[in-house]
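Handout, section 4.2: multi-component inputs.
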Amino acid sequence: MSASSVLGVSGEERDDFTKEESRQIRRRSLRLLGSLLGPLKVRVAWTMLVVIVSTASQVAGPALIAYGIDSALPAVIDRGDWMPTFLIVGVYLVTGLVGAVLIAWYTVLSARISQAILIDLRKRVFRQTQKLSLEFHESYTSGRIISRQTSDLDSIRELLDSGINQLVSGALYMGFTGLALFLLDWTSGLVLLVSLVPLLILTRWFQKRSQAVFRETRVQSARVIVQFVETMTGIRAVKAFRKEKRNEEAFGAVVEDYRDANARAIKLFGIFDPGLVLIGNLTVAAVLLVGGFRVVDGAIEIGALLAAVLYTRRFFDPMEEMAMFYNSYQSAAAALEKISGVLEERPSVPDPTSPIDLWTARGHVSFEEVRFAYNADSVVLPQFTLDIPAGQTIALVGTTGAGKSTLAKLISRFYDPTEGRVLLDGVDLRLLHPKDLRRAIVMVTQEAYLFSGTVADNIALGKPGASADEIRRAAQAVGAHEFIEALPNGYETDVNKRGGRVSAGQRQLISFARAFLADPSVLILDEATASLDIPSERLVQEALQTLLSDRTAVIIAHRLSTVAIADRVLVMEHGQIVEDGTPAQLIAGTGRFARMHAAWRDSLV
Amino acid sequence: MPERTPPSAAGPRKLGTAAALWRIYPWAKPAVPSIALGMGAALVAALVALSIPLVLENLVDSALENGDGAGIWPAVLVVAGLGIVEAIMIALRRWFVLTPGTHVEARLRNSFYEKLQDLPVAFHDRWQSGQLLSRAMTDLNLIRRWLAFGLVLFVVNTVTIVVGAVVLFTWSPLLGAIFIACAVPIWIYGFVFEKKYSLIARRSQDQAGDLATTVEESVHGIRVLKAFGRGSYALDNFAHQAESLRGTEIEKAKAIAGIWYWLLLLPDIAFALCLLGGVWLASTGELSVAQLFAFFATAAILRFPIESIGFLLAMTFDTRTASDRFFEVMNEINTITDPERPSHVEDVRGRLVFDDVHFRFQDTPVGQPDLLDGVDLELEPGETMALIGITGSGKSTLTALTTRLYEVTGGRILIDGVDIRDLSRLELRRHMAMAFEDATLFSASIRENVLLGRDDLDLHSPEADAVLEEALDIAQAGFARELPQGVETTVGEEGLSLSGGQRQRLALARAVAANPAVLVLDDPLSALDVDTEALVEAALRRVLASTTALIVAHRPSTVMLADRVALLEKGRITAVGTHSSLLASSEHYRFVISSLDDDDPAVSAPAEGDGRQEVSS
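Output:
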């Protein structure tokens, strides 16, 4: 039934969908739309009611004036009776006031609805982004996910902001006017009905063409964003290697593609919109023609013809707005397709359906016949079994690419094993409640990412709601306190984007403090001290010795000084654990570790 | 992560809306003639639309009055003709305006990007990238739509209203006056509206930018968030920000509702009063019934332009704040620029001199000394100097000064006797190449990434191949050849994800391939394992024999690469010498570099006296 070629984000950049794929994508975005509107049903109905009444009061205006001229005026002229006039003016003022109040109210009501939808959608995409596994993020660039959440949401916001308003009031206006025309003169009404045929054909044409073009604008806008984000994130390297000119060319090219796609979308609308006006105007002429001969025949009065012609014209008045609605709808639909694709992605590391709680973890980690492979040809970790008793500190050493990080990522459940199980205190990680898993197991990596906000905020990430005192103690414990105090505002210093003014080593210290504050039962350090200078590292080591005394730790480090605090060393090579023992045992032996250790000692002062 | 305010929101001077929007002119200039033509077409379309009901009325009356069918066809043809003209004019308006509008947007976007690339790193440290992104995308998009649509309709509708008002006035001065009098409060309210709305619009756009920043960080920092299981915490934060934005948007809707209210109510009051006045005028015989009809027919047509003013005003003010946000960046003064008449280094030898170099971040508190407080250091051509200091001592900053990623705040840096500020940045960065600790690779092939600094080479020429191979060899990045498409494999975000160590080696290869006179390496081997590091070092030694190099180092092994070592302490170079002489003479140096713990709990090997340590006496 469903083609996997367009499942989730696959095929996202294509624009040559088959009918079946197109239908599948459309169904998926409509489902999303439905689920967004679902909770708002009552509010939507209420808003509709408001807009119906206000549109009715607007349509009533001309009728009241006609009545005034037809009946109230003769009353004044013939009888000097001003009562009907005052009545009409009074009623007119009231409907005007009601109409204005209702429209103002409607504006706020519809804003509430569209904002409710937007916030719902924003949160869903954000939550989904967080939920999707690392594997997804490694292939789906950050620029693309950012563009899903910014420019795609923008076009949906546009639709909601003005589009719905246009649609509802336009459709109602046309409905009321058409009805009035039928009541007045059904022949003219038939002419109007006939005019709907070319109208539908034109609309269908526009729908088909614009769908493809708007899809392309979404893809191209994402490309612009990808290039933009990449440049700004890597601005230092851009400058250092004089990439500016080449970047300008590359950026200019994607901008031009985006512009071109936009221009094509706009041009389609540039045909659609005047086409509608043309149909409308020709219909007016047709009504005039048909009616004119009927007047000559004496079938209808001149006044009735005049009214019929004016109604016909008025029927097409909101057409431009409707066309604009349709235009924003097509644009938003393309965006919704992309977003629904992201939302459809299933995390390869899913949350358990019936999670097992583990209130207090002891920290016993074991691998049972675990095998890990990205795909059939590239086995990263061949089958192995490993038991890490609670409280043990393990040093994981080996060359780059030996699989150390992968092993660490299996413990922290960034990945799930292809075969076998990873257990914490006897519970399969896949069944463990995510909250408990993350509380029990924390991983600190070499890339110490800082979020914008203060230093204190960044440390507090380890334990939301931590007191200033706790934060300070964590920083002191890892030796970060001094440099933080020296910053312009101490703990309240804004680290800004990517921690530009905080050095790599300092960032690592902050992320260490973060881990310290998190206080997990199992701590994984993946090259977490690589950027530290020796005195800082020594401080961290000391802190670690206290910190790790009663918890499980897996430490990956190239600098073998870390081994000093380990109870046990695992040497890895090509995904396999080739040596396993206490540091003293291994150093005393003649294996790889003994050689590495000797080389390392040599390299020291 | 609390709410953030954009760095320089709400500047002190406040331009009028027209003046603020006029700043776009240089970019819009090529499109101005076609925008004018588009306005002309739109005006004709509007006037045709205005005339159609009147023409209809006249035609119907005159053609059918005498009851013969002869007049019908001409009347129908005139109406159809006018209808076709209107449609053509609308098509022309779009045709004239829209494509040039997209070009304006593209030009603005390219200029913005160019400016951002030109602005110094300090600017980028200060600005959140989401704020920049939302300017580059949402704001510029808005400007384009305003130019192509808002501006044109605003002018055309205003003209239509004025023309319509004049027509009304000629029909009946009294009724016309009533109509115009009712428009006065709209104008007054318009001014109130501008003040109120502009503020909210600005806030909403800034909040949207903040939201974009949060989104960006949540993606870039996904590993940290996952590692700590802080996804829901981040979501709460994000939701909080999104809620603020929602509040602002609803406030904005309320402001719009306010102006809508008046824009709808006042014409209705005018109509009611005109009806009253019209009936009176007609009863006294001053106005015929037909004229009264015509008056209302015309007035009715003016309703849409009047109502549209609310929407167009809102759009104009939105665009105004968008342009403010755009110009905040464009008007940013670049503090690191090329000199007017750049000097050249004629004979590049690679002598690098720091002469009393000072540097402090702008926001450093007054009492604190400069981060770099008078650095004096000389690197002879071909010399390799290691830079040592504790974390946060300013080593990385010092290296960033050499390529003017940051600018010295005092003193100078000379390359072969020329102040680096007298060179064009292009030339300077050709002489010096850097490898950063956090190795940024771009979404491109390995070949392109490694040869990034060699814009003088044709990427696929044999020379390029040779340079590439050598650089990969030196950096021990041979793994690149085993990747699925070898050196043509795309890496970086859009490609294969590599490990930290692999990326670092490619970044090193990139610096080496640039074949600079001076090589600046900021802790380039930190992510490498001991074996690989040894191999890289051995290979680097060959390159460094002929290249001046400044290497930030943490490990003794890296220091071994250097001819001399400079110790950075409290913002100054407190000691320069060979590793062994510094070990002997400087206590701080020993503190920074010596890693052996005497009370090593697990490793029972002797702590000192082994290895290649040779303390010269």
